[in-house]
Amino acid sequence: MLAEVLIFLPSIARFRADYMLERLKQAQIAALVQLAADEMVSPELEAELLRNAEVYNVVLRRNDVRQLVLSSPVPGAVSGNYDLRTAGPWELIRDAVMTLVERENRIVRVIGNPVQEGGQLIEITMQTEPLRKAMVRYGGRILYLSALISAVTAVLLFIAAQKLIVQPIRRVVRHMQLYAEAPEDARRVIAPVAELEEMRVAEEALASLQTQLTGALRQKERLAQLGGAVAKISHDLRNILTTAQLFADRIEDSADPVVARSAPKLVNSISRAVALCESTLAFGKAEEPPPQLSRFALRPLVEEMIEGEGLAEAVPMIGPVALTEGAAPAGLVSCLIDVPPGLTLRADREQLYRVLSNLIRNARQALEATGVPGMIELSAGEGEAEWWIRVGDTGPGLPQKARENLFSAFQGGARKGGTGLGLAISSELVRGHGGRLELVRSDADGTEFMIHLPKETMDADT
């Protein structure tokens, strides 16, 4: 529309100026006829000359003399003067718009330069109604032509948009739908063919994404098959080891001193193998149900878990000596509980019990491996957005290799013979609550884990 305006207004202004110049030219010819006839033109011929020129009066200035060459009765007073000799573009556009807007027929005086140096200037008196009608007809032709050009342009743009944008987008969508039906089929990966650079970049990015996803799905499928095979082997091996464990228990009662000394080692080895099979089977099922959230007091759950692990609760004391002196005489490891009695949180009680039990068990095993008394501290609190539970110990810390893959199954085991499944499962359970399990520190002074549980629940309708 802006282009149409920029084209239409100068065109209509130019047409108006040409129309007036044409009237001046015809009026000059009529004046020259009058002068050539040596003022012997009859009134009838003079009227015909003025009528053909569509003017009322013709004034011609020659040799500094202003002369009324042709004249006829003017039906009204002159209401405007237009000097085409000094009119600029903006003035011509303004006068053209005013002529189109004004519907009243007016008498105007037009001044211009004679053609072929036929004098110094020429003036004519004319009415605006014929000029306005001619401008309307010309404007109609311009608008019709513009509409035709716009229609052709629109069709060309539509065809170009269909070919360069719409069809490539439909092709991409169709490939995405086909790929979604069978993402493992490499034949359904899109082949970039778009001519438009932006669409080609998008197709190349989609092809790269589909290729990577197909490869990942193939790898996941192989791993799933491998996991299924490992699960079957673990199941059969567990049965075999269980039988072996029964016989090993009987060997402990042997009167042979050598056998009696070797039996505990054999039983421990078989027990670790059985535990590994059971952990592998539990992890391979991947059937953890979603958490059943409910509000409950944390302190009773912690006390129940500590009692179930066979740990004695230490008496809180001040100073570094308290961590050792507070230990129960019955064992090397004791537990200090710093959980407010009135602290309640919203979580799955059974799953949180498993998480805390895994962390406490790992800490106890790490402390027992050192052979010196140690302390496990379990504290909890809440902020505006979350609850937090801290589990720390005074053990030797985790090895660097264990810290790098701490929450990865079969990779994050810090204890010889461990599988690393405990922390992987614990992290998965905490993520199921929308929270996170993180390692805060692990150095020579001990290891500290932190559980973060959000207070806000996700609502799919918001």
TrEMBL record:
Q: Which SUPFAM superfamilies match?
A: ATPase domain of HSP90 chaperone/DNA topoisomerase II/histidine kinase (SSF55874), Homodimeric domain of signal transducing histidine kinase (SSF47384)
Per UniProt, residues of the Histidine kinase domain are 232-457
Q: Where are the transmembrane segments?
A: 142-161
Question: Which Enzyme Commission number(s) are on file for it?
Answer: 2.7.13.3
- For this protein, what reaction is catalysed? ATP + protein L-histidine = ADP + protein N-phospho-L-histidine
Gene3D superfamilies reported for this sequence: 1.10.287.130, Histidine kinase-like ATPase, C-terminal domain
- Keywords in alphabetical order: ATP-binding, Coiled coil, Kinase, Membrane, Nucleotide-binding, Phosphoprotein, Transferase, Transmembrane, Transmembrane helix, Two-component regulatory system
Q: Coiled-coil regions in this chain? A: 199-226
Q: What is this protein called?
A: histidine kinase
UniProt source species: Fuscovulum blasticum DSM 2131
